[in-house]
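[agent] plan:
  1. take the single chain provided in the ticket
  2. run structure prediction with default settings
  3. attach structure tokens to the ticket
  4. add a short note for the reviewer (M.T.)
[agent] executing step 1
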Amino acid sequence: SFVAFVQYFMDQAGGINTNKQKKVYFFDPFLYSSLLSYKRGQTLWTVISEVLSDEESISRLVEGVVVAHLRLWQEEPYKREPWSFLGFYYDRSTEVDAVTKIGQELWGIEVKFRSQARHIRRIPSHLKKLLVITQEEMPGIKKWKFILLIYSHSI
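[agent] step 2 finished; step 3 output follows
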């Protein structure tokens, strides 16, 4: 599909488990807003305005854009399908939005796109690195600053 895709749970060995919880992402936030506009019977501008005024909705959209780019960046159609290198991980205390295979290593990407983001309590031991994408509000500047923090087990 060129509209949305399913992301599967990736276990600690890098294998995909299709029986566990799944996440569905849209490739483009505009497509999401268009379908939501149709479903609600509202104008597209009304829906986009509502989405952009809700921090939770923005956070989910940014997460979707990041995961979609990871998928498009690494996929080789018919040679390397997305489920062979991209998934997500969770256990009782930790969720990682995207886990991707880079060579023989598993890297995690967590999107914390909120003004008051909760810190990650524990980095899963099977991840070589964990990239955290977050936002920081800057006093006097009316735009978001993206900060990429790279965590590794050596920290």
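[agent] step 4 note for reviewer: Residues 37 and 45 are 9 Å apart (CA to CA).
[agent] ticket updated
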